[in-house]
DNA sequence: TCCAAAATGGAATTTTAATTCCAAAAGTGG
DNA sequence: CCACTTTTGGAATTAAAATTCCATTTTGGA
């Protein structure tokens, strides 16, 4: 009760004007910075130069960084229209990881509205695909990718393992490698013939699997590890069971629409990997 | 004595090893995730999927996000070798500013360094994929898409035809239809067994092919047309030979990097089509 | 040079979050 | 089926950080 009434009052007072986007914040900062008192200006300059620190620092840390007192930081925040530092920090924190969260809400909306038109659904997949691609650039470690290419370029024969949802990825890899004359075996599971024993110590396996992980993929990976073959894993998270096999991990976090994913990111990663390997192999030949 | 020796042990245990880089952390996570108790594993998965949240969230927020108790978060942190959450968060915060530069800046940097590294190639595919997706929305006629969905929802059995470069598309369709209990046959060409004669008048064929067009796809489409089955074509241009068969055409113009394409647009279109068909079929049931 | 207003530093207080602790529940091996 | 260990949830405690307050200093105008 007490809290509620207090909050109402505070909200009213601050409804005044608190920037609600980072851009609005910096616009305001640009306008008012000139006629701020010395210490506040000093702090404003620091923020302008180190905007990324706001989200992950305490008042004391920022104060020390800008060489001002913590109370000066508080005054600055209030000067900028916030009720305090916490509110300002909330803004900086939310702007950082906003890409992801609001997709899950959008997804719910889609579920509520049912299936709508096919075009709307297509738009959804396109949108999610674009976000996934963008994210791909952030999550794939250039070093790991380079390492994967090296390993695959050195290997004798490549083995492509991935079933169900991952099969489009491996089958496309098979196509690409064939076009580039790279010896690659697509483990298809046809006729329940186990191709494990084809894997030789000098070979390498590209294992593709996403949660829920396909057991057969894990089995083949294990066999490969025992044989001594290298493993490159295209999977979704580091806690993937493929981690056990000392694989070189390439992580793809693909957003989904309902129960399905567009696979855009996974395929892009796969084809980039394939082309790089093909190029490196044909160079050394 | 007793106390002294105990303290020594404790000190030894805690100086143990706390990961001092993000990479080390995730390496350790990958190793130990397997044999973590249920709730801790649950939280580990959440962290693996949302690593960027750790730097800017409180224990309570993360706990809520992973749907575990705050104390479980603490236990997890200790299990990973930290003294507590604060220490772990410090690690994530220290590497925060390095991730701050977003996708577009990262891409520019890669561009400058030339097209040598695999990462640069990946960036190329990502960029091209995004453009293709954008283009897709423009080239696909909502009316044609709706028409295709109607036809496929009415059909008895669906036949998925597409080879070589188009095979990832048809195999993903097969996966999607299976998951939605829609009867669909993937024409795989295995063992050179011709599955033409499976196509009945009330069936429909989804034919996928891009230049240079695969003859077998055209042959099956022709057979289907003779039988009286409907044809939905996913292809690249209106002059595609599939046009001859009075097919409903869905056009995808996929940009390429060198001789290869990322297939992002084709797969997005395919999955949107599949989900729409599945929804419409299960609605009428 | 003096006064009033504004600004500042730092300690005191309040709020919030991290951490510990313990009883209850869920497994496990005999 | 029982004793014993591990795991879990949630409350209690402790630590840390945000925020306020006020005495002191600085600034600018008469």
Question: Which helices and strands occur, and which strands form pairs?
Answer:
2 copies of one chain form a homodimer.
Chain A: H1 2-15, H2 22-32, H3 38-49, H4 59-66, H5 70-79, H6 85-96, H7 101-112, H8 118-139, H9 142-154, E1 158-161, H10 167-179, E2 184-187, E3 204-208, H11 215-227, E4 230-235, E5 248-251, E6 256-257, E7 260-261, H12 264-284
Parallel strand pairs in A: 1-2, 1-3, 3-4, 4-5
Antiparallel strand pairs in A: 6-7
Helix pairs in contact in A: 3-5, 4-5, 8-12, 9-12, 10-12
The structure holds a DNA duplex (30 and 30 nucleotides).
Task: Explain what this protein looks like in three dimensions.
The structure is a homodimer of 285-residue chains. With 285 residues, chain A is of the alpha/beta class. The first copy, chain A, has 2 domains: 2-96, Arc Repressor Mutant, subunit A (Orthogonal Bundle), CATH 1.10.10.10; 120-284, Rossmann fold, CATH 3.40.50.10490. Chain A contains 12 helices and 7 strands. Chain A has helices at 2-15, 22-32, 38-49, 59-66, 70-79, 85-96, 101-112, 118-139, 142-154, 167-179, 215-227, 264-284, and strands at residues 158-161, 184-187, 204-208, 230-235, 248-251, 256-257, 260-261. In chain A, the strands form 2 sheets. Chain A has a 5-stranded parallel β-sheet, with helices on both faces. In chain A, a hairpin with a 2-residue loop joins strand 6 and strand 7 (260-261). The longest helix of chain A is centred in the middle third of the chain and has 22 residues, at 118-139. Residues 1-15 and 99-104 of chain A have low confidence and may be disordered. The structure holds a DNA duplex (30 and 30 nucleotides).
